[in-house]
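Example S7 (structure tokens).
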């Protein structure tokens, strides 16, 4: 048996109870690396590498997110084709995220 088979068996019929009752599902990705990066450091690097209007947009986005969200961090998932999520929580406790992609060869 594999861990995937064991997890599928463990979650079969299991429901997460909330305002919507939702089944659990297994999600796997082969050879995917997960990195959590510091929000301020990530934005500082991206801003330093940008020019002109692109740089200004990074500065404005960072300011907007820092003023309105808490618990900010950057999550990168993948090795070559990477999904990047910038995630935080708003004043109402809602998770707010933006997503982009990177290709690192």
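Recovered sequence:
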């Amino acid at each position: 048996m594999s861990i995937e088979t064991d997890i599928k068996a463990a979650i079969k019929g299991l429901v997460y109870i909330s305002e919507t009752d939702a089944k659990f599902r297994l999600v796997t990705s082969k050879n995917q690396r997960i990195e959590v990066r510091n929000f301020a450091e990530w934005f500082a690097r991206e801003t330093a590498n940008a020019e002109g209007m692109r740089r200004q947009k990074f500065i404005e986005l960072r300011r907007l997110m820092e003023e309105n969200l808490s618990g900010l961090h950057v999550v990168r998932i993948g090795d070559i084709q990477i999904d990047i999520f910038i995630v935080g929580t708003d004043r109402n406790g809602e998770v707010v995220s933006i997503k982009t992609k990177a290709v690192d060869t």
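Notes on this example. The domain at 31-103 is CATH 3.40.1460.10 (Nuia).
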